[in-house]
Amino acid sequence: MSDGHQGVDWPDGGGDPFDGQAPEAGRFYWGHERPSRVFPDDYDPPGADLQRAIPMGYTSLSLLERVALYDAGREVRVWRPDVRQGPDLPLQPFQLLLPPGEDRRHQLLGASWPVRFALHDGRELSARTGGPVLVCRALSHQGWH
Fold first, then answer.
1. Which helix (DSSP H) or strand (DSSP E) does residue 128 occupy?
2. Higher model confidence: residue 102 or residue 94?
3. Cβ–Cβ < 8 Å for 27, 17
4. Which positions ≥6 away from 143 have C-beta within 8 Å?
């Protein structure tokens, strides 16, 4: 599968968040309206590396975990069908990521919870847009400035 990633090109060797062939769910960062590449659950990037890849500025930084991928309303992959809501976060625990449009910007939207509702939201949004939608669980969220 070709890599169509148009987000932050970091970490080296990381995958495209919209790659449904990946066997592991993996995690990625969201900052400045762009996703990073996907990395393994046990990877803890050094702070200096993260700041170089996603420079601090007037934004928020979220750590997201892939849950499921839909395309044109069809299930491509479900990595974590029974994931639970994480700790109380200042944003919704489940998020829907859409690939960049003509303006080259991704969209990240809040989804319903628990996970069964988030999966339904992802499938429905994918059917309506006719394209891919990635369902994610928010693991952390912080001011990044």
1. helix 115-129
2. 94
3. no
4. 60, 61
